[in-house]
Amino acid sequence: MARVLGLDLGAWSVKGLLLESSGRSTQVVAAAEVRRGEGEAALPLSVAAQELLAQLPGGFDQVLVNLPGPSLAMHTMQL
Questions:
Q1: 50 pairs with which residues across the strands?
Q2: What letter does residue 43 receive in the DSSP assignment?
Q3: Residue 38 pLDDT level (bands cut at 50, 70, 90)
Q4: Where are the beta strands (DSSP E) in the chain?
Q5: Positive or negative: CA dihedral 46, 67, 5, 41
Q6: pTM attached to this predicted model
Q7: Dist. CA 15–CA 30, nearest whole Å
């Protein structure tokens, strides 16, 4: 039985979904969301992720992460 944690590390919130897969079926074990807030009061991504993990039952075999596009790459061009 594999347990997979899916994380969505967004600008406004961090969401997590814990799935359990066995053979041909997949079940949702738990889901949680931590809102980060806005502006200077916004939680750092690392703090929000730690709070989210504290809400989910422990133990998973794989982690899948979705990141906001602008945080992955930035290309500067001069014309």
A1: none
A2: P
A3: confident
A4: 2-9, 13-22, 25-35, 62-66
A5: positive
A6: 0.78
A7: 11
